[in-house]
Amino acid sequence: MACEYILDKDGKVMGIICSRGSRAPKCKFCGKVSAKLCDFPVHGSKQGKTCDAPMCDDHATSVGEDRDFCPDHCRQEEMQLETAEREAEMRELAGLRAGEAGRHEATASADEARRQGSEIAGAQRGLFHD
Q: Is residue 111 in a domain?
């Protein structure tokens, strides 16, 4: 006969349940009775499935309606979001720098055109005034 201890928040025994049936799944992270399964999509040989790690309410992080991630996948998702945000910032900075370089090139080209225009105008004045 399998017996299960029911604990309160402080870890004190509130009751004991003994049964012959199957046990409720336990949280992978603390051993409490599992209330949820991790909904993080897995890749590789298990493509199209979810992690399904059993979790108690304390270890589940809600990421949408009826969607929860385990602590491991919650950290992984946070790291992926941070990486994506950094990459977006770097692309934005690179675009700004490219834009600045383009402005510098355009300014230099305009200055060169003005200088050449002045030289041509000066040469034309010399042709017409001689």
A: yes
